[in-house]
Amino acid sequence: MFKLFALVFASIAVANPVTTREVTWTNPAITRTVALPAPGATTTATPPPQFNITSVDMNGTGCPPGSGKVFLNAAHTAVTVTFSQYDVSAGPGIPITENRKNCQVTLKTHVPSGFTFAIIDVDYRGYYQLDTGVKGSHSAIYYFQGQTVQGESGTTINGPIDGANFVYRDEFNLSPTVYAPCGQDSILNLNSEVRVDNTGNTNGFGYFVDDSVDASINQTYNFAWLTCP
What we know:
This protein is mainly β. Helix content is 0%, strand content 48%. Strand 8 (135-144) and strand 9 (151-158) form a beta hairpin.
């Protein structure tokens, strides 16, 4: 049996279901960093229409300039980040630089007075293949600039996996959750890393890419909203 790895921040899933050898797995053993909620945060809220992402910056080997896009959904409950070069591979003849890639996405957000938000989970979709003795891993963190606490998750899977589409969900089930400063414009950092390691079988191959349909990563980060004074 194998375990699928991927991430998800909240309650809604990515659209366009996988139709080939789909596997969905919620990681039950996520690393958790406990954080305080925003001071004064009270009850669950409908997302404010005034919320917006005012700027986007991407940096990393998995997201060179021009290779990524960010979309905020109309309901302001999720943001989707897509990449076209965030794939990793390992095996004979493959440069070691292709074994690991990372990306930091920095979002400047406008948060109207009286509201705060957090990330709950994130979904990854894609395709992967791992020979015997080859393993893949994924890790991610998120934090709001100026805060010392962060949400963390990570998973390792071991081959053999003979090629499969996947939906991977990793819940940042923090209690309390990491919330943005209440009613303040905030900078949200989303850091992720993917690896393929064939040191256990140097003749083996491994490959991982999110969203095999169009060879691009599709990550959807889902928000939870609260009201606050």
